[in-house]
Amino acid sequence: MSSSVSVPALRIGVATLVALAFAGCTTNFEGPKIDYKSEAKAQATPSLEVPPDLSSVPRDERFAVPQSASAVAAAKAGESAAAAAQVLPTSPLARVVRDGNLRYLLVQRTPDQVWPVLRSFWTDNGFVLRLEDEQSGVMETDWAENRAKLPQDFLRRTLGKVFDSIYDTGTRDLFHVRLERVGDGTEVYVSHRGMEETVVATKDSTRWEPRPSDPSLEAEFLQRLLVRFGTDETKAKSEVAAISAVQPAPRARIAGDALELDDGLERGWRRVGIALDRGGFTVESRDRAAGVYGVRFVQPGKETEEDPGFFSRLFGAKPDRAVRQYKIAVKAAGNGTRVQVLSAEGGVDKSEAATRILELLQGELK
User: With CB atoms 3.0 to 4.6 Å apart as the test, which of 62, 68, 153, 226 could cross-link to 231 if both were Cys?
Assistant: First the structure.
């Protein structure tokens, strides 16, 4: 490792020195809870240097965000018009539902009607969408920084616009959205993934590492989505708070080489899909007829690289690259659902790695 000081470390050091120079100023940490700024949007103006770990995967140019101010305004106007045409903002169309430890919105509209509303919602909240697959009902934001975490003090207000690059929260957030059709309605699931900047052992540079998903952020965006779908803001806040306070009974348990769920097959299939999203797995295929998910795991922020770090923590050692892809079988078992990890040959995988995967899913499905 180079002995030179990295850009992130230098940024932190400069920020600290400047802050000390203004130590007599009063600090006010009050402000909006959420104020996101996507790294992709920030590229158009001078900003902090994005660590390599947070580089985005190549995006389909069909979904490229217009760069000019007029083009962005026109695009947003079009999205807002599409949303207004599909949703009646004066009539609540959604409610929040609790299913085990999962919370989601049940919207009284079809997925094709909900989709443009969600696109507009995330861009309005400061995000760039790096994945949009309307056919499978999957949407994912780019990595973004919650600027509301920064102290809004005299120093920040005075020098922030000039030396904005030295101010950084040291965290990034990404949100994965999945839509599921249920009758004439749509279930909307929001999953959070986080990264944080940490100082390496030599203390002369930093690196980005995964941090646990934040249920409070998921709840905040569910609340805001309720408002977008016509619910009064006060009512939306109380509704999410009330349902979040519920302590559900355990509904998932490991039995031998399987994870047993107290859900019918349809509900179990959907819940496992959301658990895979929250657990950091990338769902590469979904064969509903066969009841099998094809998945792989990639460390957040390294979508194009291998991730020995996660598997070293999860499985205790660096595995062979060939076992990084898995098949998760979801089958009916009486009135419930059974989840098993399959081997490359199609049989039940009884390895320690498979057991660890089931334990990870149980943590998300309990």
Answer: 226
- Write out the E strands in the chain: 36-38, 94-99, 102-107, 129-133, 138-141, 144-146, 171-182, 185-199, 206-211, 252-255, 258-261, 281-287, 292-297, 325-333, 336-342
Domain that residue 318 falls in: 249-366
Pairing of the two strands 138-141 and 36-38: unpaired
Average pLDDT over residues 263-275: 89
List the Cα angle 277/282/285 in 5-degree steps. 105
The model's pLDDT over 3-40, given as tens digits with 9 standing for 90+, comes to 444 445 445 444 444 444 434 443 333 334 788 877 66
CA angle in degrees (0–180, nearest 5) for 191-195-198:
160
Total-model pTM:
0.67
Give the C-alpha separation, 202 to 356, whole Å: 32
- Does residue 306 share a domain with residue 240? no
Same domain, 283 and 231: no
* 33-71 burial code (b ≥16 CB/10 A, e <16): ebbbbbbbbbeeeeebebbebbebeebeeeeebeeeeee
Do 167 and 157 meet the contact criterion of CB atoms below 8 Å apart?
A: no
DSSP letter (8 states) at residue 213: -
The total number of structural domains in the chain stands at 2
What average pLDDT does range 234-260 have in this prediction?
A: 88
Report the CATH number at residue 286: 3.30.310.170
pLDDT at 160 (0 to 100): 53
Domain end residue (candidates: 228, 247, 266): 247
User: Is 188 within 8 Å of 114 (Cβ atoms)?
Assistant: yes
